[in-house]
Amino acid sequence: xxxxxxxxxxxxxxxxxxxxxxxxxxxxxxxxxxxxxxxxxxxxxxxxxxxxxxxxxxxxxxxxxxxxxxxxxxxxxxxxxxxxxxxxxxxxxxxxxxxxxxxxxxxxxxxxxxxxxxxxxxxxxxxxxxxxxxxxxxxxxxxxxxxxxxxxxxxxxxxxxxxxxxxxxxxxxxxxxxxxxxxxxxxxxxxxxxxxxxxxxxxxxxxxxxxxxxxxxxxxxxxxxxxxxxxxxxxxxxxxxxxxx
Length: 245
Fold this sequence. Notes:
CATH superfamily of the largest domain: Response regulator
Number of strands: 5
Number of helices: 12
Helix content: 40-55%
Distance between the termini: 55 Å
Strand order of the largest sheet: 2-1-3-4-5
Order of helices and strands: EHEHEHEHEHHHHHHHH
Structural class: alpha/beta
CATH architecture of the largest domain: 3-Layer(aba) Sandwich
Number of domains: 2
C-alpha cells in the first residue's frame, strides 16, 4: 500500500539502517524516522499524516503501551504497529493490544516470522506476534480496557519499583502528579501497603515486577562497576546455591 510511514525510535544512530531495510528490503515508500516524543510527535503526525506509525516497544520505556493509547485517542484513525527489537517482557506486550494497537511484531520470533509481520503491516493488515497471541488466548478474561485505573496502576507500579518519583512518573506518562498520587494511593489500598517501601517490597515478593522491567530505567550501564566486598561475596554465594539446586 502507498502512503507515508513514520518510524519512531530512540536509536538515532540506526536510522539510516532502518530506512534502507524498510525501503529496499521490505518495499516501504516514503519512510521517515524520528526520535521526537509526546507533543512534538503529535505535531509531526499532524504534519506528515502517516498511513502507518511504527514504534519501537521501548520508546517510552515502561509507559510505551500507555502512550500509544494516548496517541490513539488523539488520532483514532492512526494505524500503529509496535516492533520489539529487544528482549521486551511479553507480559507488557499484551497491553499494547489492550490499549488499541493493531499490530505487534517481535524480532525474537525469528527472522522469517519478523519478515512476515513487517510485510503484513506494510500491506495494511493486522498482525500479532505468535508469542503474544498465545498469551492473549490463554487469558480467559481480559482486563477492562475501558478502565483507565487498571492500566495506570500497572504502569505506575513498575515505575515506582524503578525508583521514579511521582513527578517523574507523571512526566513519563504525561499525567499530573495528583493523578499519579491517586493511582499510588489506590495501589497502597489494594495491597494494604502503608508506604512506598512496603509497596515495592510487596511487588517484588509477588513477582509483579521483574529485572527486565527495571532495566528500562538504567540510564547508565552497570557493566564494569567495582562491587564492594560484601556484594561480590554475596554474588559468589548465590551462584553456588544455584549450582547446587
